[in-house]
């Protein structure tokens, strides 16, 4: 991803997974057995995880390495919107477009 290094990408991903699970930094750090300031440094991309901490991330957040290191969707909002629009413009099948429309509306209205 342009503009973000691996530490920032990984930190952003860990933060999103933590928030998705409704955990505070303190709660996740405690479950992982690390200091809150260490987790904070990881999430903002100042620090990189050790192998031991990485194993704890997999275990506590219940993610695989491929899930954790998939960064394609971590882009600025505007870039994601433009990519979606571009992809939609390339779809010829009206039924597919209607299905995507329904999915988007259902997701937005959750």
Write a brief structural summary.
Helices cover 67% and strands 0% of the residues. It is mainly alpha-helical. It is elongated and about 50 Å long.
Word description of this protein:
This protein has 110 residues and is mainly alpha-helical. The protein has 2 domains: 6-68, lambda repressor-like DNA-binding domains (434 Repressor (Amino-terminal Domain)), CATH 1.10.260.40; 77-108. 67% of the residues lie in helices and 0% in strands. The chain contains 7 helices and no strands. The protein has helices at 6-20, 25-32, 36-43, 51-61, 65-68, 77-89, 94-108. The longest helix is centred in the N-terminal third of the chain and has 15 residues, at 6-20.
End-to-end Cα distance, whole Å, is 29 Å
Please identify the structural class as seen in this structure.
Answer: mainly alpha
By CATH reckoning, the class of the largest domain would read: Mainly Alpha
For this structure, what is the CATH homologous superfamily of the largest domain?
lambda repressor-like DNA-binding domains
From the coordinates shown, what is the CATH architecture of the largest domain?
Answer: Orthogonal Bundle
Number of domains: 2
- CATH fold naming of the largest domain: 434 Repressor (Amino-terminal Domain)
Beta-strand content estimate: under 5%
Give the beta-strand count: 0
Order of helices and strands: HHHHHHH
Number of DSSP helical runs: 7
């Amino acid at each position: 991803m342009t503009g973000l290094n691996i530490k920032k990408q990984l930190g952003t991903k860990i933060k999103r997974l933590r928030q998705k699970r409704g955990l505070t930094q303190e709660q996740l750090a405690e479950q992982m057995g690390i200091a809150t300031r260490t987790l904070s440094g990881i999430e903002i991309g100042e620090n990189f995880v050790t192998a031991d901490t990485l194993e704890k991330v997999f275990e506590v957040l219940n993610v695989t390495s491929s899930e954790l290191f998939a960064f394609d969707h971590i882009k600025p909002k505007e870039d994601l919107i433009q990519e979606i629009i571009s992809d939609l413009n390339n779809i010829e099948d009206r039924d597919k477009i209607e299905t995507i429309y329904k999915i988007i509306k259902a997701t937005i209205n959750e």
